[in-house]
Amino acid sequence: MALYSAGVEYGIHCMLWLADDKGDSREASVRALAELQGVPQELLAKIFTRLAKADLVVATTGVRGGFKLARPADEITMLDIVRAIDGDKSIFDCRNVRERCAVFDGSPPDWAMAGTCGVHAVMLTAQKRMEEALAQQTVLDIARRFGRKAPPEFGEQVMRWWDGQRDGKGGSTSS
Taking the domain 6-88+139-166, which CATH number applies? Predict the structure, then answer.
């Protein structure tokens, strides 16, 4: 079972499409982003509502309106996106098993209940480290990593596809 929803994955990918590897923001509609990535447009619309509410994207006006980054790509972290879409999630829900030990016969001693549960403490540390890692990676970091991986012709294909969307010609990438 995944900790974060599919919406987080969709949202992060969309945020990456809204930035180039130099950090410049692009404008795109939810419809075009959904079509480009093969994800449900209805879900993406809900995701963008959450991203906008968190001030990560802003709506653009006009006939070809859509969304663009609300801040520079190097100021939007993966943790910002995760929290905008899924909220603050705890990776562990301590059920206080330690208080139900049969040996205690329903009355756990103070020493057993003192402080944070040892298991819960480990999980809190793990969550803190995971969130620190997410906070250290920005949209620009990931966009640059992708930019180094993809061949130059892929960027050209994507730009032709975007231009086709704006011109109403659909998603053709041929020259």
Answer: 1.10.10.10
